[in-house]
């Protein structure tokens, strides 16, 4: 599940229509998920990162929907 979430995040991060500050935050979430930390810690930290993005008004609506889907995917992994 986490690998699938990372792949989906990479797609968002590579989308040049997404604002740069959002892509940077997505990159940070990818880095967290790829870290050597314990799985529960990785999930918690990445979910905190992504939850903050869903409230950001500069996130395009289609990207927000993608992020919400990824959050749901990660939450089902908890």
CATH class label: Mainly Alpha
- CATH architecture title: Up-down Bundle
Gyration radius over CA? 11 Å
Strand percentage, roughly? under 5%
Q: Could you walk me through the main structural features you see in this protein, from its secondary elements to its overall organization?
A:
With 78 residues, this protein is mainly α. It has a single domain, classed as de novo design (two linked rop proteins) (Up-down Bundle), CATH 1.20.1440. Helix content is 74%, strand content 0%. The protein is built from 4 helices and no strands. Helix 1 (2-13) runs antiparallel to helix 2 (20-33), helix 2 runs antiparallel to helix 3 (39-54) and helix 3 (39-54) packs antiparallel against helix 4. The longest helix has 16 residues, at 39-54. It is globular, with a radius of gyration of 11 Å.
Chain-wise SSE layout:
Blueprint: H1 2-13, H2 20-33, H3 39-54, H4 61-76
Helix pairs in contact: 1-2, 1-4, 2-3, 3-4
């Amino acid at each position: 599940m986490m690998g699938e979430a990372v792949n989906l995040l990479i797609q968002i991060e590579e989308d040049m229509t997404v604002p740069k500050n959002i892509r940077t935050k997505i990159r940070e979430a990818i880095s967290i998920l790829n870290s050597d930390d314990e799985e529960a810690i990785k999930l918690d930290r990445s979910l905190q990162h992504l939850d903050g993005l869903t409230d950001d008004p500069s996130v395009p609506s289609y990207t927000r929907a993608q992020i919400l889907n990824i959050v749901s995917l990660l939450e089902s992994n908890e």
